[in-house]
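Allow me, if you will, to draw on your knowledge of protein folds for a short while. The matter concerns a single protein, recorded as an amino acid sequence and a row of backbone structure tokens. Could you please explain, in whatever detail you think fit, how the structure tokens follow from the sequence? I remain grateful for any guidance, and I place the record below:

…
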Amino acid sequence: MKVLKRVLRYASCYRLYLFLSALLAILYVSATLICPIIVGYAIDEIVEGAINTSLILKYIIILIFIIIFGALFGYVMNILISKVTYLTVKDLRNDAFNKLLNVPIATLDNHAHGDIISRIITDIDVVQDGLLQSFTEALTGIITIVFTLVFMLILNYQIGLIVFALTPLSLIVAMVIAKLSFKTIKNTSKVKGDLTSFTNEMFENQKIVLAYNQMDENQAKFELIDDELYRHGVNAQFYASLSNPSTRFVNAIIYMVVATFGSLSIINGSQILTIGLLSVFLSYANQYTKPFNSISAVWAELQNSIASLRRIFDWLDEKEVYTQTNESILLYGDVDFENVCFSYNEKKVIIDNFNLHVKKGEKVAIVGPTGCGKTTLINLIMKFYDINEGNIFLDGKNINELSLATIRDNVGMVLQDTWLFNGTIFENIAYGKDDATEEEIIKAAKDAFCHDFIMRLPNGYQTKVSIDEGVSEGQKQLLCIARLMLRLPSILILDEATSNIDTRTELKISKAFNHLMEGRTAFIIAHRLQTIKTADKIVVLKDGKILEVGTHFELIEKDGFYKEIYNSQFQTN
């Protein structure tokens, strides 16, 4: 299967471990096959009547040494296989997470976030468990089947041929059951992703659920998905449970045929087959069929792994944001939109034939009603989405020809939605500038007016914070602003950047921003028009098109749409 071939390419990076594992597996299986022969010799020695005690003791000592060395070979083999498995899964998980960082935002929009998390974490855990068992059973199982059959053919080709002729029965039974079970296991894996996605959605929006009293409705939805998971799980388990007893039945037939044929040969006075040799064949018949039982026992786990691998590789095959180079260059801040058109889907155009020239150092405010395309424009500058038509130029260079590193290094953002990771305040401010000194971080904090409240915290800049705890919403916003002030990019994007800050603090932040924006290009999105009066250029959007462009006073004098929303805002207030 393509999926297994693909995961084996990951494992092939560790060829040395695989080679040593195979070598140790051969030694381990050989040891287990030699033991019955020694026991058979001992039995024949006893049956013959004249017991040679020293010879029997010799057999026992040899047997003990073989058992010890065989166990040692098996132990080291299992360690190496575990190492290969965990390294393979580690690489797989790294690639899956790396894909998360490099796919377009549109790809993330088209996937439920819980489903992506399920693929990167849950599905890879399933693969890890399945591969660990499958590698072990497949390696030792195949070698055991081949070597046992060879030993039997050498010792007695007639019995060996009988066993070989009956072998396909086990394979046919296993393959038929596997075909029946795979579809249900695949469906089970998909529904698990749906359940994770729904749970994640409820967790992130718990306050909304409680506020709208939708607990019972969402509980019913959860139980519906859970019932579907139960149905698929039961069906998958039913088919998987058929595998082991079915192969055991076939294996019992093989054991019975060997015992019957061997016993009749001895009764008929065969000089080739002895009682001791028969015991060897019975042991081999049992040992030969064990791999089929073991493989069938882990077959369900392997099918689960294959289903999860399909989901993982589907994710890894998602298209990434592509640029011709990873080199980062310095931009000065000129931004040009040339006949830009964009839509998230074919049903509705968000940006329609947008043209705008922004010079270095200009402060441009973008205003308009909800859904007019303000935030979308910012997303296009950041290349979070690819435009459908037209061009965007930064310093005269097409944005599609610039590396993502150049865009992200030269454009800084502060958004309405704050984000802090689990770590210290110091680390959160320094995010994006690894070489920042303590003096730079403290200066950025002071410029963002958050130094004072930081110093009042129990451990100052070393206080642990996260998105959920440690500081208030307004303080989180201040820390995000300090993070931007530390980087000093050429182009600034402020999307409702002061929405969570009280009026008094907002005045201070505005002064800091004015200082920060000196000589830098700035795009400001704000619903409170009072905050953008000093902008060099105000762009008024409606339905993705520019209605008006000008300064605050120019637009007021035009007595157009801008004046209408400006007056309505103050009347409302």
In short: The radius of gyration is 35 Å. The chain has two domains: 2-316, 335-572. The mean pLDDT is 81. Residues 215-267 form the longest helix (53 residues).
